[in-house]
Amino acid sequence: MNNNTIVVLGGAGLIGSLISRILKQYGYCVRVVDCGPAQFECEYHNIDVTQPFSNTDDVFRDAIAVVFALPENVAVRSIAWVTAYVSSEVVFIPTCSVQGPFYKALRAVAPHQQFVGINPMFSPKLSVQGRTVVICVENMDATQSFIEQNLLDAGMKIRRMTPTAHDELMALCQTLPHAAILAFGIALTKSSIDLDLVAEVMPPPMRTMMALLARILVNPPEIYWDIQLENEQASTQHKVLLKSLERLQQTVAAHDYESFKNDLQSVSNTLGKRLNSGAVDCQHLFSLLN
C-alpha cells in the first residue's frame, strides 16, 4: 500500500500548483484533481469537483491527506463528496483565505475528521523563502503536522491559530486593505481626467495606490471576491471603513482642523513603535517607484 499519496483538489491552479510542487519536493505522490491539466508531472484526474461523478474511489485510494485548493464555496460543497470516500484519519487541508466556513461545514458532516488549514500570506508567483503561512488548527498544542514541517523545510515561516482567530485577523489584514484599494479603483473609474495625464504627474502615494490596484486586477477576481464575501467579519470592516470616510468628510466640511489633527494623533498612537519603521518602509517603496 502506498502511504504517501496526497490528493490535491484544484491542483492545477496557482495555490494548488504551489502546494503540489512542495509536496513532490518532499517525496509525496501527488494526485491532482482539476478540470485543467497540471503543469508538472503527477497522477492527474480530469474531474469537475462541483459535479463529481460516482465511482471515484480511485481518486482517493490510499490517500493520507486531501488538499482543498479551491474557492471557499467550492471547497465547502466538495466536503460531502470527499468524506464519502475517505476515513476520518485522512487529513483535510483547505487553503482557503477564509477558514471558518469550511471548518464549520466539515465538523457538521464529519466531527472527527483530521483538519489542518493553511493560508499562504503571499502570491504563489513569489518565492516562498521567508514567507509566512498561517496554519489553522483546533488545538494550538497539537503535535506539528507533516504539512507544517514540509512548509518549514521549504523555507517558509509558520503562524498557528484557530479558524475563528484566523478569519478575524484576515478581515483586518486582507478584507480591509483590499476594500480600500477596490474602492479607490471604483472611484478612479468615475473621474473624467485622462489617465495618461495622471501618469505624467502623479506623486508617489498615487503611484503606490495604482500599483496596488493593478496587482489586484491582474489576478483572478474570485480570489478577492471570496475575501470580501465569505468572511463573516468582512461586513464589520466595510462599515468601519465607511464610517472612517464619513468622519473625514465631516471634519473637512466643518473646517475642523483640531479634530483632523487629533484623529491623526490617535492613529499615530495606535501604530506606536511601528510608526517610524513604517515611514522608512514607505520611503523605500517611493524610492523604488520613482
Automatic annotation (TrEMBL):
Pfam families membership: Epimerase, PDH_C
GO molecular function: NAD+ binding; prephenate dehydrogenase (NAD+) activity; prephenate dehydrogenase (NADP+) activity
Signal peptide positions (record): none
Single biological process term from Gene Ontology: tyrosine biosynthetic process
Annotated protein name in UniProt: Prephenate dehydrogenase
Domain Prephenate/arogenate dehydrogenase: 4-282
Gene3D superfamilies: 6-phosphogluconate dehydrogenase C-terminal like domain, NAD(P)-binding Rossmann-like Domain
Top-level taxon of the source organism: Bacteria
Keyword entries, A-Z: Oxidoreductase
